[in-house]
Amino acid sequence: MAFFQGGIDKVEAWIAERERSGIDFGDPRRRTPQGVLKAPKFVRFHMLDSGEGCDEIFWEDPHNFTPRRGRNGWIDSWGIYPHDNDGFREVDGMRIAERTATTQHIYREKENMFLPEIQFIDALITKKVSQLKQVDLGDLPQRDFTLYISLPFIDNPYDSRTDRYWRRIRVSGGLPLFVFADKVITPLWGWVRNLHAHIFHDFKDGALFGPKGCNAMDMMHLDKSGYKYIPEEEYCIAHILRTPGEVMGYHYDFGDNWFVDIKLEEIASKEESTGAVAVLDGAGGIPPDGEQTGTFHWADYLRKAARSPVGKRKAVAALFGATNYIQVGKKPPADPFSYDFDAFDLEGTRRAVRDALDSKASLPYASKKFVSPIGEQTPDSMLSDESVMLRLGMRLKDMKKGTALAQVPVSDTTFLEEGVSVGRKDNPGNTACANCGSPSDLKACGACGQRYYCSKTCQKAHWKDRHKNECKRK
Questions:
Q1: Are 44 and 119 in contact (CB under 8 A)?
Q2: Has residue 281 been placed in a domain?
Q3: CA distance readout (Å), 374 to 68, 266, 371
Q4: Are residues 382 and 446 in the same domain?
Q5: What is the number of domains present in the chain?
Q6: Domain extent for 11
Q7: 13 in any annotated domain
Q8: Which of 42, 288, 389, 420 is positioned for an S-S bond with 293, CB 3.0–4.6 A?
Q9: Are residues 400 and 449 in the same domain?
Q10: From CA 299, how far away is CA 287, in angstroms rounded?
């Protein structure tokens, strides 16, 4: 409430200043963070918006501005954030939060006037989408890509020249970004599917791609993660990576913030390619998902763990207290000092990815939420429109046909709840073979229609291996 009142006070102070100075309310000029009074080259400010807290880059023209570059000269997050000496973006979260509190009731979609920051990003999105329409991918969607996926900013105490956490995989260049995130990257690191938001960064120009309609809790931090992104569902890996050596970024969980580098190492010939997803190798254990442990927090835990027994005990406790460890029933070791943070389970990782491929796509518009019921609850009260809206951010009647609510306990008093597909089929243009992970030439199971296959060979293999016991003939 105090935050909201502070926003009102700033608007009133702005109005009073304008009246005292005699500046017309229609004057487009605003003071930049450096105190220079000037009109922005592209965006428009609402007459009640003083521009306080708005980064100076938004006074530029998005069609020809110079994006800010970070480590290795890469551009992340549309190129709008400054970077520190290590090349990591510096986001003034408090400044942005205060500006959001001040402007959230000034700009209204129905009035067709958006926040200047959104106006700027919308222009970049329009430009990028137009460029993507002109891209000729050739046969890249039919060729296999070898990708080296690593967690930057986490020191390797054994060899400073190498990554402590990394995975090497082979996937099709035509694998849709949504499938790549949901069924490959997430299980590859042992994280929880459909719990957090994510975005891909095209480091060539800073363009962002993310899940359409995502309502994950950490979406509240999108204004500190690029403001807006291109829906990823229409694009594949080859739309971002096309030349060996290129790297794209992946940002998972806008609250805790995990950052991932994805490097294209090799492109196989079309003749040698199968389209199948394969986990080839890796290093480092499963990083925590939750417990306020993103890239930098976990790196700090690991540094302290290496320095003292107390630090290691705290790191092990944080790891086994994370959602992804609790969800699968992992118990903390009796002796935390003997725990190996770097143990990599290749077969376990392959199994996790395979299980994800043999499942329905997550529903980002009904993402997982933590629920801790208070007081006496009945099944009817738990399923009331008001109750479901408070928990999931949507009403039951707004869920798509063939979907339902699913609940998974994480403790005696808390469960995770999300919308899941039951009878609803995956979009054949945005899924992968349930057996091998190829996105090409997909056809649904003729009996249940709930799994897709790239060939009869894959369908037969999957039938014998597991689908025979699951398939429901209609």
A1: yes
A2: no
A3: 47, 53, 9
A4: no
A5: 3
A6: 2-133
A7: yes
A8: 288
A9: no
A10: 10
Within a domain: 106: yes
Q: Is residue 61 domain-resident?
A: yes
Backbone angles phi, psi at 394, to 5 degrees: -160, 160
Same domain, 122 and 27: yes
Q: How many CB atoms lie within 10 A of CB 96?
A: 18
DSSP for 137-176 reads -TTGGGSEEEEEEE-TT---SS-TTS-SSEEEEEEETT-B
Round to whole Å and give the CA distance between 252 and 273.
Answer: 29
410 with 449, same domain: the answer is no
pLDDT tens for each residue of 150-190:
999 999 998 989 999 999 999 999 999 999 999 999 999 99
DSSP 324: H
Helix (H) or strand (E) holding 31: strand 30-31
- Rounded to 10°, the helix 309-320/295-307 angle is 140
Enter the tokens of residue 401: 């046909």
Q: Which residue has the tokens 């009640």?
A: 48
Phi/psi of residue 461, each to 5°?
-65, -40
What pLDDT digit, counting tens, does each position of 118-129 carry? 999 999 999 999
Cβ–Cβ < 8 Å for 6, 99: no
Q: pTM of the full predicted structure?
A: 0.93
